[in-house]
Amino acid sequence: MTGRRLLLGETARVVVRGANWVGDAVMTVPALRELRRLLPRAHLTLATRAWASGLFAGADFIDDILTIDDSRRGRIRAFAHEVRLWRAQSFDLAILFPNAFAPALVARAAGIPARVGYATDGRSVLLTHALPLPEWRGTRHESFYYLNVVAELERLLTGGATVARAEPRFDLRASEEARRDVEELLRASGARLDRPLVALCPGSTNSRAKRWPAERFAALGDMLSERAGAEVILVGSRGEREVSDEVAGRMN
Q1: pLDDT tens-digit map of 35-70
Q2: 46: which DSSP letter?
């Protein structure tokens, strides 16, 4: 690990570069909660992709969301735009959850004085505090991979180890407005709201290899409906419509 000593008084404005995919973003929730507990008076900004930002709307453990949307820009223009956004916020500390080189380059180009993340993708030179990969990676739930970043930050700031002992909390609060909107959508789609609701997401836009077979999702949906009396809802993006239709077609 490299870099100068981090001080609590120097962490007034913190940006967290979130994970790129929705599933990974969910697995960062425990780490974000622990970061809020570790830095209760800091202003925490989550920089995340547009498709994951809705997960954190109204979350009580962050103060702001900085949406990363490079869909209408070329790679160089998107990079320059993101650097400008980060620089304008005058962040003191950047915490990088993704392993990729690009987020570290953005943080360095934006002039953020302290930059913490894993020493992956040849980006150690861009980080002030490059963290070694944990030996247990691949044997523990992925949420602990993100929690470990905050645990290492705690060690740097206070020498403590409370985060390392924390049990992951994944719960997210939805606003009353969001709840009403969802209820209206469900009713319009024909869902029976007097039954338990179970959402299944059979697709995976970034890797078909991650998909559980459609026939097994269908069997699970039938079991939930028949044994638990649940209303089963299939959710996903437009690119996952085909596999959702297949699951629906296989269900009783």
Answers
A1: 999 999 999 999 999 888 988 988 999 999 999 877
A2: E
CA distance 216 to 137: 28
Mean pLDDT of the chain: 92
CA-CA-CA-CA torsion sign (236, 244, 182, 27): negative
Q: Which amino acid is at 91?
A: F
The string of pLDDT tens digits covering residues 159-188 is: 999 999 999 999 988 888 888 999 999 999
- 224-242: per-residue pLDDT in tens? 999 999 999 999 888 889 9
Q: Which region, left, alpha or beta, applies to residue 191 given φ > 0 means left and ψ of -120 to 50 means alpha?
A: beta
The pTM of this model reads 0.84
Our CA dihedral for 235, 236, 241, 244, rounded to 10 degrees, sits at -40
pLDDT of res. 69: 78
| Residue 2, token pair as written in the block | 């490299």
Q: How many Å from the N-terminal Cα to the C-terminal Cα in the chain?
A: 55
- Quote the CA–CA distance of 226 and 205 in Å, as a whole number: 29
Task: Show the DSSP H helices in 94-204 as ranges.
Answer: 101-109, 143-157, 176-188
CA–CA distance, 105 with 83 (Å, rounded to integer): 9
Interatomic CA distance for residues 6 and 29, integer angstroms: 23
Are 38 and 153 in contact by the 8 Å Cβ rule? The answer is yes
